[in-house]
Amino acid sequence: FTVIGIMFCGIAVGYFFRKVELLQKIGKPISYTILLLLFLLGISVGANESIVNILRRWAGKLVVVASAGTLGSVLGGCGEFIISFFK
Fold first, then answer.
1. pLDDT digits (tens, 9 = 90+) for 16-70
2. For residue 26, how many other CB atoms are within 10 A of its CB?
3. Quick check: 87 pLDDT over 80?
4. Cα Rg of the chain (Å, integer)
5. What is the 8-class DSSP label of residue 86?
6. First vs last Cα of the chain: how many Å apart?
7. Is 9's pLDDT higher than 90?
8. Helical (H) or strand (E) element with 52
9. Are 3 and 11 in contact (CB under 8 A)?
10. What confidence score (pLDDT) does residue 43 get?
């Protein structure tokens, strides 16, 4: 709940200060910071033996689930595009 609460506080602050010029220019640095954090998270996961062993054991099923989710999203997007095209 702490992480979600902090996120909602950030949303509220961003909403109330959305006219501030500095906040409008901060999008790109934030994107790079998030990419750096994801990279560091990947390093910590790769260094953890128990997580790596679990990933090896479940690799096939994880690939199927990720592929099915991606395919479902693509098909849903295509379906929405086709429906909106014929309206």
1. 988 888 888 888 899 999 999 999 999 999 999 999 999 889 999 999 999 999 9
2. 13
3. no
4. 20
5. T
6. 43
7. yes
8. helix 49-85
9. no
10. 96
Q: Under a CB-based contact definition with an 8 Å cutoff, are residues 55 and 62 in contact?
A: yes
CA dist 57 and 70 (Å) reads 22
Q: Are 83 and 77 in contact (CB under 8 A)?
A: no
DSSP 47: H
Tell me how far the alpha carbon of residue 69 is from its chain's centroid.
Answer: 14
DSSP 8-state code for residue 48? -
Longest Cα–Cα distance in the chain: 53
Sequence letter at residue 76: G
Distance CA 68, CA 53 (A): 23
